[in-house]
Amino acid sequence: MGDQITTSVVIIGAGFGGLLLAQGLRKHNIPFQLFEQEQLSERPKGHRFRIGEDGTEALYATIPNELGDLFTKTCPKLIDPRPSFWDPKTLAKVDILPRPKRPGRGPCAIDRTWVLSLLSLGIEEHIHYDKRFTSYELVANSVLAKFEDGTSIRTKLLVGADGIHSRVRAQLQPTRRLVDMERQMIWARTTITPEVERRYPDWAMRWTALLDQQHPTRNVILEPIMWEKNLSILSNGRLPSQTNYIYWALSSELPTHTPRTIEELKAFVGSITENWDHDFCSLFRLADWDLAVRARILSSKPDIGHWSGTNGRVTLIGDAAHPMSPQGGLGGNTVAITAADLSRTLGQSGINEESIIDFENRMRATAKEALDTTFASAKFMWNGKEWYEYEEVENR
């Protein structure tokens, strides 16, 4: 690594967007290397997200046909294409106008661990773990990507797919600021055990959103993630088996004291749901708390901005480019669409300044539509405000 251009594309980040792009490059026979700061681990890598009809079509168009067949064969079963809305105290149904259905296959409920395992198949030798990106340097007609361990690699194109705290974005857009959505999210899962099946109500065993009408800033979105057969058997041993679970994401105002331990997190959830339906709250009492994650919600403004000075040698995709509130339900879908677009662009038009600029212009339009919809959704989900009413914050 170092002096010579050793690959056409370097991707920073082995999340959904980075791996999907990598599979697209593989399909187009474009050399690449992918670097991930986390160590390789069998621990579950997050929980669930959704991609809609257009995102599903983008994914199928990007990955090799053999992987597409495996995706279809091993995807968690879809219980509901659209969510139902309820009040968690009265269990009265809340009428919400559904989004229009788009053409295409899907939507799909995506288990993150499953899809990352699937999208890693066939490219394992190109993925480098425990490699923390620090900065890049423009050198002649190439980019030198540098890592914390002192190594570096030269490439024609550097793609930042390193998430909301992107180091690539921090250098590419040093003055860009996100907005603080003034709330937190707790993501967790509850394994579907015999006890859960006894205690948890049947009416909620579907894609469901519970909106607290007395405290409009509080809600929970949940969905069962279930496979009809053992994943290892379905994939002939290529994918690890997974356990059926109920995914849930509890959104609320920021607490006075930030929960920092599992016990504090459990106590906080118990305090804001104490008047909710008792049977439903078995979801929280029986949760796999060691896998729970809490985060303050930040978002891009609808205009993700421009960047210059790299001559098309550095770009962004996914949350590195357009982070958004997860409760809009469009984050993963937008990642799929833009990663697929970049893959297709490089395959058809090559790596050059014009093709990258064209891609970035399309990504800005796609991201703006999704972000506008997400901010609008926040108004009825939890009394959200206009994006320009939130405080701007640095995010590095």
From TrEMBL:
Gene Ontology molecular-function annotations: FAD binding; methyltransferase activity; monooxygenase activity
Cofactor: FAD
Lineage top rank: taxon: Eukaryota
Gene3D superfamilies in UniProt: FAD/NAD(P)-binding domain
Residue ranges constituting the FAD-binding domain according to the UniProt record: 148-348
GO annotation (BP), single: methylation
This protein's UniProt keywords: FAD, Flavoprotein, Methyltransferase, Monooxygenase, Oxidoreductase, Transferase
InterPro entries according to UniProt: FAD-bd (IPR002938), FAD/NAD-bd_sf (IPR036188)
The protein, known as: Dual O-methyltransferase/FAD-dependent monooxygenase CTB3
Family matches, as Pfam families: FAD_binding_3 (PF01494)
